[in-house]
From TrEMBL:
Pfam families: MTPAP-like_central, RRM_1, zf-met. One of its GO terms (molecular function) is RNA binding. The keyword RNA-binding applies. PANTHER family: POLY A POLYMERASE CID PAP -RELATED (PTHR12271), SPECKLE TARGETED PIP5K1A-REGULATED POLY(A) POLYMERASE (PTHR12271:SF127). SUPFAM superfamilies: Nucleotidyltransferase, PAP/OAS1 substrate-binding domain, RNA-binding domain, RBD. Keywords: RNA-binding. The keyword Transferase does not apply. GO terms for biological process: RNA 3'-end processing. Residues 43-117 form the RRM domain. This is RRM domain-containing protein.
Amino acid sequence: MVLRCELCRIEVPDEHVLADHNNGKRHQALLTARERFETSQNSSIYVTRIKADHDETTLKTYFSRFGSIKNCFLDKEKHVYAIIEYENIDSANKCLEQSEQCQLDDGTRLKVKPRNQHEFKSKRMLISEQEFLNINKEKEIEQHAALIQVLNSQSTIDEQAEAIVQQEKLPEEILKLREDFFKELETMFGKHFPGAKLCLTGSMANSLVTTLSDMDLVLVLNDTYIEPQRLPSSSNNSGESMTIDENSCSNDIDIHQNKFKRNVSDGSSSRSLSPTLQTSTYSVDELLQMSIPDRLDCIRRLLRSSAAYVCHVQRIAQARCPVVRFCHKQQKIFCELSINNHLAVANTDLVRYYLIYEPKLRSLLYTIRLWLKQKDLVGKGHRFNTYTLFWMVVCSLQLDNQQLPSVLSLAERAHHKRQHGPWNCSIPDISQMEKKIPTGSIGKFHIHFKIELKSVYLEQILHNFFKFYSTFNANQHELSPWTGKLETKTPEGKLFAIYDPFEHDHNLTSNLSPSNWQKFQEECSLASQVLDEFSKKRLNKSWGLSLILTRKSLPQKNFAHEPHYPHSTNTIEFQTEQTNEQELENQIQLILKDVLLFEQVNYETISKKRPASPPNEVTPNKLAEKLDKTLSSKRRRTDDDNYTLTAPATGITYSKEKLYFQVAYRTWQDRRKLKRSIENDHQNASPYEREKLISKKLQEDPNHHLEMPLYMSMEMKFLPMTETEHNLRKVRIYFEFQATEQHQLFVDLTHFLTLYLPKMLTNPATN
């Protein structure tokens, strides 16, 4: 059941999360702000019939007879009205009771009435993509139902894909409004920076725009190359490239925010713009010599002073690509403006080249993007973005009989070389290609493949995409559109890596979570099965793309293939001075059982936990069998492939037996809330005893009881010592859990253990 906080305009999964949210600082701050707002309205009066020679002093002098005045606002342009705010509501009511007798000393009779009541809305909250979908939920559902009907009425999957493009693309009238807005910005920046050029990049520049797409802009002042900021790996995001992703730079912001907070930079960004603000004029050289925050502040002040149609101006300096983010008041679209981001401009030209070279790419991208949107795998956070999806499609075609040329081969053919920093960003001239496709060879790529690709149905290309990524071994290979080949993965590489076509050391999926990559591969496998079995039109039944565009995954029992039950796994790795494997295992058991209240069980105990259940139900008995098979001594993991069956590595000592645990209480959640009160009440207790008391408190709370126990398995091993590690041993612990509806609980739990276990093992009480 989904619950909603109307004040903060967010949705939460259950009442426990809602209760935590309601006690949070942000919600409480908004409650206080709403109370002040309502009190201010009820304590204010609205005054008209004011003359030009009346000022605030005159009004304050007269209306102070009814009570103490807190604030006085006078319309200074036309002197049409004034708002008088009293310190309390009684003074306002007293004035309203005598409103018929309000007359100034010069004889002017004033008209006094209560101030208009408006609904409280926090200006700090910017509407997010998810909120936009929730606000328009009914409309979106109707559109989706209509789309399914349209898809089922088509004759081929190629026609279905074209119907998706027509449904998803931005209407011409809205696109025209955005183009006019861009021209206004272009004129404004041209006045302040003569010779500079405002470039439109991203999805709008390449006609891949949807309703939720941001407008990505680059202010090119000169040829100076600005190196992207190197942020810590925890703050990098897959959506950092400002090219064709509607969430390009906002992802960098959200990753630092609380899950219920909105994209807020500072207090000034939440205020409406005023055209009366003063801004200093800087030359291009002066602007580029400033620090990043000062440079963005200068652009922000310029927007606030010269663009009255712009609001919510934000400075986003802590991002890989620093931007100024703002919103159009009427059109409600977000814009992200960067300075001298030459790579974004070059990437936009490269994307445009590929779209002209192979028009089917547009339909492919729209289809795959909508498919992943229904699976909640595209958007902000640890998901895919449009820019990454585009290059994933290109790479799959590059590796499929070289149906698309590599970026390297295009750079070699370019007549005009374009170098930005250390990166070669050259591509052939687009205008020449639009007129005539060149003949001959491009490296190993022969142009006659273009003719072959045009004869290939989009259905086959889409099917190959799903098949390619459902079987892609991300532990051994990584993708590069620059070379158009599979590259051997580096030891320190992420789970799945696809690199930017120009900036070769930038992994576009650096922030993609392992769980989302696993889900993506599973969905690719299911989509491939759908296209295998239901690719032909069926009378009065859904078929083809209408089947894969469901909001949830199709039940695997719908297919003739044997169902696959994936496992959720997590690995913890740390160093310890403990050299005895058995003693370390005992310490970990003590923390899990004595502190976190996990119950250790064996295989036989779990087997007898329940009687036999229907085949489709996941029970402790079936779970124990799965865990026993997957964690048996025959199945060992390697660093290269977590799912490969291999023999134990030489020189590594494995734990003699695996451990099973039953988890009945959510003792890993809300510990910080109880920590301070426990410390105050038990000041003489050791840190270890305090941790136990926190768990006891959580155990007594019914809200922290699990409806169905969670069963997990643990396996530990010591890694070989190196010459530099004198008295330290490296330990690796595997946790595994059979994936069911409790998958998210396991993810939260193992994330907690990743931080909690190493900290507790340093506690003397566990030694």
